[in-house]
Design goal:
The complex is a heterodimer. Chain A is an alpha/beta fold. Chain A is built from four helices and five strands, in the order E-E-H-E-H-E-H-E-H. In chain A, strand 3, helix 2 and strand 4 form a beta-alpha-beta unit. Chain B has three helices and six strands. The two termini of chain B are 22 Å apart. Classes of the chains: A alpha/beta, B alpha+beta. The interface between A and B is medium-sized, with 18 and 18 residues.
Chain lengths: 124, 133
């Protein structure tokens, strides 16, 4: 089977305070460090919130999760919140099983995440 | 012999809980295979002591204070079926998580040669061990 191409995009399409980083493919030991630069760029751009969109991410391993956790810690030090978005049931189970969802809240869609961040309580 | 196998498995869990990889040679054959392909996290097959270290590294990537608690060890001749409670604190969050799984251990000459982890149901673990309920 051909491994899905891994790509990370940072999109400043929401506004400078809400930065979007999209991950495609498999986030694993081969590329987990690729999240560092987009996280830093988001901070430099004045982000208050980073949405990590894992909607097109097919697999996350322990190093990928560790990279997300490390990113959340670094962002928090800079006063920036990190939330993740995906409907992928395997990734949702991973976030629940490892309690990472307690550090990086996970939402099924960007709209739900943004609504929650704007103070409109929504059920996940 | 099979009760001895149960004690070997108990010792292996103890050594894993204490992160005593060097002590694992008391319990594991050097060619041991850890079939973790049913796992949610890093499903894979890990081989030998190096594989065990890699597996423990996976755990430490995401949990602090990770612990196995064997709640029931079922003697099945050259196999042992273990019902274990897995618990840990999420790295970063400190939030405690727990889950129950069944593992099937296979032993030869008093050492573990294979561990099949991550069975969710007792019946499938017993079936894998060739035990009829």
């Amino acid at each position: 089977m051909v491994k899905p191409t891994f790509e990370v995009f940072r999109e400043a399409s929401v506004d400078s305070a809400e930065q979007l980083i999209r991950v495609r493919g498999e986030l694993d030991s081969a590329n987990a460090t690729a999240l560092r630069d987009p996280f830093q760029s988001a901070v430099d751009a004045g982000a208050r919130v980073v949405l990590l969109d894992l909607g097109e991410c097919s697999f996350v391993d322990s190093t990928g999760l560790a990279a997300i956790l490390n990113g959340a810690r670094e962002l928090k030090l800079a006063g920036v919140a990190l939330v993740a978005v995906t409907r992928n049931s395997d990734i949702v189970r991973l976030f629940e099983f490892t309690a990472i969802g307690e550090t990086v809240p996970l939402f099924p869609t960007r709209d739900r995440a943004l609504a929650e961040l704007d103070g409109e309580p929504v059920s996940r | 012999m099979s009760q001895e196998n149960v004690e070997v498995v108990r010792g292996a869990y103890e050594a894993m809980n204490n992160r005593e990889v060097s002590r694992m040679s008391e319990f594991l054959d050097p060619e041991v295979v850890f079939d973790m392909s049913r796992n949610i996290l890093n499903p894979d097959v890990y081989r030998g002591f190096a594989g065990l270290e890699r597996l423990m590294g996976v755990v430490e990537d995401v949990w602090d204070d990770f612990h196995f608690e064997p709640e029931e060890l079922i003697d099945a001749g050259d196999r042992v079926v273990a019902r274990i409670k897995i618990s840990g604190r999420g790295r970063g969050s400190g939030v405690k998580t727990e889950m129950h799984v069944f593992n099937v251990w296979t032993l030869r000459h008093g050492k573990v040669v294979r561990l099949e982890g991550g069975y969710r149901e007792r019946a499938e673990a017993l079936e894998a061990a060739g035990v009829e309920e």
